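**Fold tokens**
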Amino acid sequence: METLRLVLLFLHIVGFAALLGGLLVQARLPEKVVNAPMRDGIGTAFLAGLLLVGVLESGDDPVNHAKIAVKFAIGLVILVLVMANMRKERIPQGLWAGILLLTLANIAVALFWSPVHSS
């Protein structure tokens, strides 16, 4: 189970790296689009995250459900925004910035929120 957890965590991180890279590569461009790394990155990160929660739930360690809920909600919003705008020729600067901020927020939650809530 530990190997599966590590593989899913790796895929989750790679997915967010692809999403972030797809966003940042457009930082200096005047027109923004939803590109393939953004689409594939959020899809991979979201699916790997869901599977990772399943693996964590089956283990003995407690799971921080509040953290998972926040990451799920942010990830779902990113997924919907990316998929809804995938076929558009361009997206507004504000939408691009919003997806970037949500992506960074999701990464920050993963990094700074402790894995287990202590009372």
